Description:
MacB-like_ATP-bd, Putative ABC transport system ATP-binding protein, ABC_transporter-like_CS, Rossmann fold, transport, ATP hydrolysis activity, six-stranded mixed sheet, four-stranded antiparallel sheet, alpha/beta
Amino acid sequence: MSLHLTDVTLTYPDGDNRLTALDRVTLSVPRGSLTAVVGPSGSGKSSLLAVAATLVTPDTGGVTVDGVDTTGLSRGALAALRRRAIGIVFQQPNLLPSLTATEQLQVMATLDGRPPARVRRRADDLLDAVGLGAQAGRRPHQLSGGQRQRVNIARALVNDPVLLLVDEPTSALDHDRGAAVVDLIARLTRERGTATVLVTHDRDHLTAADRTVEMRDGRLHPAPEVHRLR
Length: 230
């Protein structure tokens, strides 16, 4: 398994008490598969992603990414693990307005110390993979919302992660563009062998997932079976 959460509990201060965001959550995601996590706002979906991304340390329980038990790792070691093994697709693309699509990817790969020539080839390959090869030289204001989200996805994949975490990728898109983005994530998951967790409140695009789980009050539950068209 490229992601394994074991009996994870996470709480936050809430006045004189503590609010439970995750309540004994266990989840395993193998490479080459897409797990969708659905649930209402405030159910714990974002907390689940933050823990899986090693951005937040749970109160109890274990988090294993690409065979590495993250318990007790230093901040530096966690940052290195994120750079090497984890790609994150944020809800909003947050692209740098002055950079082209290619340059958005190059910045991320250069931060990891990769040779510039290899970085450029990798960026071009990924933009081709998400259908944006012809828009590689365009800046964010020259791209549609769906195209910006595709750059966001390509950027998350530039360091060839084993774990891909996707946060509400369709929230700013209409139905058709949202469906296209989820289908793209599912295809890239299988082609590139990532273990992908996609958090969404939108149940209309779940047919692309290999498995769907539902989060309620910080706990994971099996979701109703979704009819898949594949």
